[in-house]
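Researcher: Go.
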Amino acid sequence: YKALPKDAALGLWGLGQCFFGGRYVAFFSAAEAFKSAGGDQLLLSLQDLQTDASTVMRANEKQEQETGKTTTASEKVALVMRTIDPNRVSCALGGFWAGYMGIVLALKSKFARTVALAHSIGDNLRPVAAKLLAPSALAVTPPEYQQWITPGINVICQAAAMSLAWKMQRVVSSVQAGVAGGLLASRSILKFS
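Model: Structure:
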């Protein structure tokens, strides 16, 4: 990924989003939310933390060579506290938290709409299903199990509504991902060439 030119990598990402965005809705929604919530800053902060970790590893090796023994856990903690920059760690953790919360909120709101749509469809489907299915179900169900007919119809309606709502969400997400991914891919490829 790092060896590719930035525009080529963005073009590949756009193609992936264009062709697979409808199939992996949650992944691309989470990636977009992460990016909009400061994911780029987090990646820079993680690179800084990687540099700090390398510095700590080198300092640990140097300390072990000087003393001739392996360092204890408390010595390693003290070494980490002396070596790393606390502001960079704080910035990285803040960026991680912002990215995480962005993902959670984006997924929660997107899929909460789907669940609300499913609930609405199920509520409107239930009276029709009860009129159509209840007489037949009453005729074939033994009397000791007839109290389960109404809850069974309710569950069937909710399951059918949930399936329909998710299919509708997938179509909407496919179109949105296709447009956004195609636009990203075409812009990146035109810049790259």
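Model: The mean pLDDT is 83.
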